Amino acid sequence: MQPEQISRDGSVPVSAPAIEVTNLVKAFYDTSGDRITLAAADVNFTVRRGEFVCIVGPSGCGKTTVLRIIAGLEQATDGQVKIGSAASPAMVFQEASVLPWLTVAQNVAFPLKLKGVPANEQRARVSELLALTGLTDFADARPHQLSGGMKQRVSVARALVDNRDILLMDEPFGALDEQTRLVLQQELLRIWERTGKTVIFITHSVDEALTLADRVLVMSPRPGTIVADLAVPFERPRDVVELRRDKRFWDLTYEVWRLLAVSPEH
Ligand SMILES: Nc1ncnc2c1ncn2[C@@H]1O[C@H](COP(=O)(O)OP(=O)(O)OP(=O)(O)O)[C@@H](O)[C@H]1O
Questions:
Q1: Together in a domain, 82 and 206
Q2: pLDDT tens digit string along 40-91?
Q3: Which terms are listed as keywords in the entry (predicted)?
Q4: What per-residue confidence (pLDDT) applies to 2?
Q5: Do both 68 and 200 map to the same domain?
Q6: Looking at the DSSP assignment, which residues form a beta bridge with residue 236?
Q7: What values do phi and psi take at 96, rounded to 5?
Q8: So what's the pLDDT on residue 261?
Q9: What is the pLDDT of residue 213?
Protein backbone atom coordinates (compact mmCIF):
# COMPACT_ATOMS: atom_id res chain seq x y z
CA MET A 1 0.00 0.00 0.00
CA GLN A 2 1.34 3.42 -0.89
CA PRO A 3 1.30 6.07 1.82
CA GLU A 4 -0.80 8.92 0.55
CA GLN A 5 -0.11 11.62 3.09
CA ILE A 6 3.63 11.92 2.75
CA SER A 7 4.79 15.27 1.45
CA ARG A 8 7.38 15.55 -1.30
CA ASP A 9 10.31 15.85 1.10
CA GLY A 10 9.19 12.61 2.76
CA SER A 11 8.02 14.24 5.99
CA VAL A 12 4.63 13.41 7.47
CA PRO A 13 2.38 16.35 8.33
CA VAL A 14 1.93 16.31 12.13
CA SER A 15 -1.78 16.98 11.78
CA ALA A 16 -2.37 14.00 9.46
CA PRO A 17 -4.21 11.09 11.07
CA ALA A 18 -2.22 7.88 11.30
CA ILE A 19 -4.99 5.86 9.63
CA GLU A 20 -8.07 7.03 7.76
CA VAL A 21 -10.60 4.49 6.53
CA THR A 22 -13.35 5.89 4.30
CA ASN A 23 -16.39 4.08 2.88
CA LEU A 24 -14.50 0.80 2.88
CA VAL A 25 -16.28 -2.14 1.24
CA LYS A 26 -14.96 -5.66 0.81
CA ALA A 27 -16.68 -8.45 -1.09
CA PHE A 28 -15.10 -11.82 -1.71
CA TYR A 29 -15.81 -13.40 -5.09
CA ASP A 30 -15.60 -16.98 -6.21
CA THR A 31 -13.53 -17.96 -9.23
CA SER A 32 -16.45 -17.43 -11.64
CA GLY A 33 -16.72 -13.82 -10.44
CA ASP A 34 -20.03 -14.28 -8.62
CA ARG A 35 -19.93 -12.52 -5.27
CA ILE A 36 -19.93 -14.93 -2.39
CA THR A 37 -19.54 -12.85 0.76
CA LEU A 38 -19.94 -9.18 1.55
CA ALA A 39 -17.48 -9.06 4.46
CA ALA A 40 -17.44 -5.31 5.21
CA ALA A 41 -19.81 -2.57 4.14
CA ASP A 42 -19.15 1.15 4.38
CA VAL A 43 -16.57 1.10 7.17
CA ASN A 44 -15.46 4.58 8.28
CA PHE A 45 -13.05 5.54 11.05
CA THR A 46 -9.93 7.55 11.77
CA VAL A 47 -7.07 6.76 14.14
CA ARG A 48 -4.91 9.58 15.43
CA ARG A 49 -1.17 9.32 15.75
CA GLY A 50 -0.20 7.47 18.95
CA GLU A 51 -3.74 6.33 19.64
CA PHE A 52 -4.69 2.82 20.84
CA VAL A 53 -7.93 1.70 19.19
CA CYS A 54 -9.65 -1.65 19.75
CA ILE A 55 -12.20 -3.19 17.40
CA VAL A 56 -14.81 -5.60 18.74
CA GLY A 57 -17.62 -7.28 16.86
CA PRO A 58 -19.34 -10.61 16.31
CA SER A 59 -17.47 -13.50 14.76
CA GLY A 60 -17.28 -13.20 10.98
CA CYS A 61 -18.23 -9.51 10.87
CA GLY A 62 -15.12 -8.55 8.90
CA LYS A 63 -12.66 -7.37 11.58
CA THR A 64 -9.71 -9.33 10.22
CA THR A 65 -10.62 -8.35 6.67
CA VAL A 66 -10.55 -4.64 7.56
CA LEU A 67 -7.21 -5.05 9.34
CA ARG A 68 -5.71 -6.96 6.41
CA ILE A 69 -6.78 -4.22 4.02
CA ILE A 70 -5.14 -1.59 6.25
CA ALA A 71 -2.00 -3.77 6.32
CA GLY A 72 -1.99 -3.91 2.53
CA LEU A 73 -2.46 -7.70 2.54
CA GLU A 74 -5.88 -7.51 0.91
CA GLN A 75 -7.42 -5.18 -1.72
CA ALA A 76 -10.54 -3.17 -0.88
CA THR A 77 -13.50 -3.63 -3.25
CA ASP A 78 -14.39 0.03 -2.76
CA GLY A 79 -13.47 2.95 -0.50
CA GLN A 80 -10.12 4.23 0.68
CA VAL A 81 -7.46 3.58 3.29
CA LYS A 82 -4.90 6.32 3.92
CA ILE A 83 -1.82 5.60 5.99
CA GLY A 84 0.03 8.62 7.37
CA SER A 85 3.35 6.86 7.64
CA ALA A 86 6.26 6.21 5.32
CA ALA A 87 6.53 2.57 6.43
CA SER A 88 3.84 -0.06 5.98
CA PRO A 89 2.21 -1.19 9.24
CA ALA A 90 3.62 -4.06 11.29
CA MET A 91 1.23 -6.90 12.07
CA VAL A 92 0.81 -9.42 14.90
CA PHE A 93 -1.51 -12.37 14.27
CA GLN A 94 -3.54 -14.56 16.62
CA GLU A 95 -1.21 -17.50 16.23
CA ALA A 96 2.34 -16.60 17.14
CA SER A 97 4.16 -16.64 13.82
CA VAL A 98 7.59 -17.74 14.94
CA LEU A 99 10.03 -19.59 12.72
CA PRO A 100 10.67 -22.88 14.55
CA TRP A 101 14.24 -23.41 13.27
CA LEU A 102 15.47 -20.03 14.54
CA THR A 103 16.29 -18.97 18.09
CA VAL A 104 14.28 -16.26 19.83
CA ALA A 105 16.96 -13.65 19.03
CA GLN A 106 17.13 -14.76 15.38
CA ASN A 107 13.33 -14.63 15.09
CA VAL A 108 13.27 -11.07 16.43
CA ALA A 109 16.16 -10.08 14.15
CA PHE A 110 14.50 -11.55 11.04
CA PRO A 111 12.96 -8.31 9.62
CA LEU A 112 16.30 -6.52 10.10
CA LYS A 113 18.17 -9.31 8.35
CA LEU A 114 15.77 -9.11 5.40
CA LYS A 115 16.47 -5.38 5.17
CA GLY A 116 20.23 -5.96 5.23
CA VAL A 117 20.80 -4.08 8.50
CA PRO A 118 24.46 -4.55 9.61
CA ALA A 119 24.96 -7.36 12.16
CA ASN A 120 26.14 -5.11 15.01
CA GLU A 121 23.08 -2.86 14.62
CA GLN A 122 20.87 -5.95 14.52
CA ARG A 123 22.37 -7.22 17.78
CA ALA A 124 21.89 -3.89 19.57
CA ARG A 125 18.30 -3.50 18.43
CA VAL A 126 17.40 -7.13 19.19
CA SER A 127 18.78 -6.91 22.70
CA GLU A 128 16.69 -3.74 23.29
CA LEU A 129 13.57 -5.53 22.14
CA LEU A 130 14.31 -8.68 24.15
CA ALA A 131 14.65 -6.50 27.25
CA LEU A 132 11.44 -4.60 26.43
CA THR A 133 9.46 -7.83 26.06
CA GLY A 134 11.05 -9.71 28.96
CA LEU A 135 12.81 -12.27 26.77
CA THR A 136 16.46 -11.54 27.48
CA ASP A 137 17.01 -14.84 29.29
CA PHE A 138 15.50 -16.76 26.37
CA ALA A 139 17.51 -15.20 23.56
CA ASP A 140 19.05 -18.55 22.56
CA ALA A 141 15.96 -20.71 23.16
CA ARG A 142 14.08 -22.32 20.26
CA PRO A 143 10.32 -21.80 19.90
CA HIS A 144 9.46 -25.38 20.99
CA GLN A 145 11.01 -24.56 24.38
CA LEU A 146 8.66 -21.60 24.91
CA SER A 147 5.14 -21.28 26.33
CA GLY A 148 2.34 -19.83 24.16
CA GLY A 149 2.61 -16.48 25.93
CA MET A 150 6.37 -16.33 25.35
CA LYS A 151 5.95 -17.15 21.67
CA GLN A 152 3.48 -14.32 21.39
CA ARG A 153 6.03 -12.01 23.06
CA VAL A 154 8.48 -13.01 20.33
CA SER A 155 5.89 -12.03 17.71
CA VAL A 156 5.38 -8.67 19.40
CA ALA A 157 9.14 -8.07 19.68
CA ARG A 158 9.59 -8.89 16.00
CA ALA A 159 6.75 -6.56 14.99
CA LEU A 160 8.44 -3.73 16.91
CA VAL A 161 12.04 -4.39 15.90
CA ASP A 162 12.14 -2.29 12.74
CA ASN A 163 10.36 0.55 14.48
CA ARG A 164 7.37 1.10 12.24
CA ASP A 165 4.83 3.69 13.36
CA ILE A 166 1.72 1.56 13.11
CA LEU A 167 1.09 -1.77 14.81
CA LEU A 168 -1.90 -3.88 13.73
CA MET A 169 -2.79 -6.69 16.15
CA ASP A 170 -5.33 -9.36 15.23
CA GLU A 171 -6.46 -11.02 18.46
CA PRO A 172 -2.86 -11.55 19.52
CA PHE A 173 -3.77 -12.87 22.97
CA GLY A 174 -6.90 -14.80 21.94
CA ALA A 175 -5.32 -18.24 22.29
CA LEU A 176 -3.82 -17.61 25.74
CA ASP A 177 -5.16 -18.39 29.20
CA GLU A 178 -6.76 -15.55 31.16
CA GLN A 179 -3.83 -14.96 33.50
CA THR A 180 -1.14 -14.90 30.80
CA ARG A 181 -3.39 -12.64 28.82
CA LEU A 182 -3.61 -10.13 31.68
CA VAL A 183 0.17 -10.14 32.06
CA LEU A 184 0.67 -9.51 28.34
CA GLN A 185 -1.97 -6.77 28.31
CA GLN A 186 -0.08 -4.98 31.07
CA GLU A 187 3.19 -5.40 29.17
CA LEU A 188 1.71 -4.24 25.91
CA LEU A 189 0.45 -1.08 27.63
CA ARG A 190 3.89 -0.45 29.08
CA ILE A 191 5.53 -0.95 25.68
CA TRP A 192 2.97 1.25 23.95
CA GLU A 193 3.50 4.01 26.51
CA ARG A 194 7.25 3.88 25.87
CA THR A 195 7.18 3.62 22.08
CA GLY A 196 4.22 5.86 21.21
CA LYS A 197 3.02 3.55 18.41
CA THR A 198 -0.37 3.88 16.78
CA VAL A 199 -2.18 0.61 17.49
CA ILE A 200 -5.29 -1.09 16.11
CA PHE A 201 -6.06 -4.19 18.17
CA ILE A 202 -8.84 -6.66 17.33
CA THR A 203 -10.33 -8.66 20.16
CA HIS A 204 -13.39 -10.75 20.99
CA SER A 205 -13.05 -9.68 24.59
CA VAL A 206 -14.95 -6.54 25.65
CA ASP A 207 -12.96 -6.63 28.85
CA GLU A 208 -9.65 -6.62 26.94
CA ALA A 209 -10.79 -3.77 24.69
CA LEU A 210 -11.72 -1.57 27.65
CA THR A 211 -8.48 -2.41 29.44
CA LEU A 212 -6.29 -1.37 26.53
CA ALA A 213 -7.98 1.17 24.32
CA ASP A 214 -8.39 4.92 24.09
CA ARG A 215 -11.38 4.19 21.86
CA VAL A 216 -13.42 1.06 21.19
CA LEU A 217 -15.00 0.64 17.76
CA VAL A 218 -17.97 -1.72 17.77
CA MET A 219 -18.86 -3.51 14.53
CA SER A 220 -22.23 -4.88 13.43
CA PRO A 221 -22.74 -8.48 12.27
CA ARG A 222 -21.66 -9.14 8.67
CA PRO A 223 -21.52 -7.21 6.49
CA GLY A 224 -19.60 -5.36 9.16
CA THR A 225 -19.78 -1.63 9.65
CA ILE A 226 -18.87 0.54 12.63
CA VAL A 227 -21.95 1.03 14.82
CA ALA A 228 -20.30 2.82 17.76
CA ASP A 229 -17.10 4.67 18.56
CA LEU A 230 -16.72 4.83 22.35
CA ALA A 231 -14.12 6.84 24.24
CA VAL A 232 -12.56 4.91 27.13
CA PRO A 233 -11.99 7.46 29.89
CA PHE A 234 -9.48 5.71 32.18
CA GLU A 235 -6.33 7.63 32.93
CA ARG A 236 -2.88 6.35 31.91
CA PRO A 237 -0.80 4.56 32.90
CA ARG A 238 -3.37 1.86 33.61
CA ASP A 239 -3.16 -1.05 35.99
CA VAL A 240 -5.02 -3.91 34.32
CA VAL A 241 -6.17 -5.34 37.67
CA GLU A 242 -7.03 -2.10 39.49
CA LEU A 243 -9.12 -0.95 36.52
CA ARG A 244 -11.66 -3.57 37.49
CA ARG A 245 -12.48 -1.72 40.71
CA ASP A 246 -13.75 1.23 38.68
CA LYS A 247 -17.53 1.30 38.29
CA ARG A 248 -17.15 3.00 34.90
CA PHE A 249 -15.41 -0.15 33.65
CA TRP A 250 -18.55 -2.22 34.30
CA ASP A 251 -20.89 0.50 32.96
CA LEU A 252 -18.91 0.54 29.73
CA THR A 253 -18.80 -3.26 29.61
CA TYR A 254 -22.59 -3.26 29.80
CA GLU A 255 -22.84 -0.57 27.11
CA VAL A 256 -20.65 -2.51 24.67
CA TRP A 257 -22.51 -5.76 25.31
CA ARG A 258 -25.79 -3.93 24.66
CA LEU A 259 -24.37 -2.72 21.35
CA LEU A 260 -23.30 -6.24 20.48
CA ALA A 261 -26.91 -7.20 21.34
CA VAL A 262 -25.79 -10.18 23.37
CA SER A 263 -26.30 -10.34 27.11
CA PRO A 264 -23.11 -10.89 29.16
CA GLU A 265 -24.19 -14.28 30.49
CA HIS A 266 -24.47 -15.82 26.99
N1 LIG B 1 -10.27 -15.08 1.45
C2 LIG B 1 -11.58 -15.17 1.67
N3 LIG B 1 -12.41 -15.69 0.72
C4 LIG B 1 -13.74 -15.75 0.93
N5 LIG B 1 -14.35 -15.33 2.06
C6 LIG B 1 -13.58 -14.80 3.02
C7 LIG B 1 -12.16 -14.70 2.89
N8 LIG B 1 -11.66 -14.12 4.01
C9 LIG B 1 -12.72 -13.89 4.82
N10 LIG B 1 -13.87 -14.29 4.23
C11 LIG B 1 -15.22 -14.16 4.78
O12 LIG B 1 -15.44 -12.82 5.14
C13 LIG B 1 -16.19 -12.75 6.35
C14 LIG B 1 -15.43 -11.91 7.36
O15 LIG B 1 -14.28 -12.65 7.78
P16 LIG B 1 -13.24 -12.05 8.85
O17 LIG B 1 -12.21 -13.08 9.07
O18 LIG B 1 -12.84 -10.71 8.42
O19 LIG B 1 -14.19 -11.91 10.13
P20 LIG B 1 -13.80 -11.62 11.65
O21 LIG B 1 -14.75 -10.61 12.15
O22 LIG B 1 -12.36 -11.32 11.77
O23 LIG B 1 -14.12 -13.05 12.28
P24 LIG B 1 -13.59 -13.73 13.63
O25 LIG B 1 -13.93 -12.78 14.75
O26 LIG B 1 -14.38 -15.02 13.73
O27 LIG B 1 -12.12 -13.95 13.49
C28 LIG B 1 -16.43 -14.19 6.79
O29 LIG B 1 -17.70 -14.59 6.36
C30 LIG B 1 -15.37 -14.97 6.05
O31 LIG B 1 -15.82 -16.26 5.75
A1: yes
A2: 999 999 999 999 999 999 999 999 999 999 999 999 999 999 999 888 999 9
A3: ATP-binding, Nucleotide-binding, Transport
A4: 39
A5: yes
A6: none
A7: -55, 125
A8: 77
A9: 98
Which residues of the chain fall short of a pLDDT of 70?
1-15, 262-266
Q: Is 220 in the pocket of ligand 1 (CB under 6 A)?
A: no
Ligand 1 contact via 65 beta carbon (within 6 Å): yes
Mutate to test the pocket of ligand 1, among 24, 25, 65 (most ligand atoms within 8 A of CB): 65
ipTM of the complex: 0.98
Number of compact structural domains in the chain: 2
The answer to whether the CB of 88 is under 6 A from ligand 1 is no
- CA 38 to centroid of ligand 1, rounded, Å: 9
Edge to edge, the sheet with strand 215-219 lists 90-92, 166-170, 198-202, 52-56, 215-219, 226-231
3-state secondary structure of 253: helix
What is the C-alpha to C-alpha distance for residues 36 and 223, in angstroms, rounded to an integer?
12
pLDDT at 86: 84
Q: Whose CA is nearest to atom 31 of ligand 1?
A: 60
Domain range enclosing 244: 4-89+166-262
Q: Residues 194, 207: one domain?
A: yes
Atom of ligand 1 nearest to the CA of 66: 18
Please state, in angstroms and rounded to a whole number, the distance separating the CA atoms of residues 64 and 48.
Answer: 20
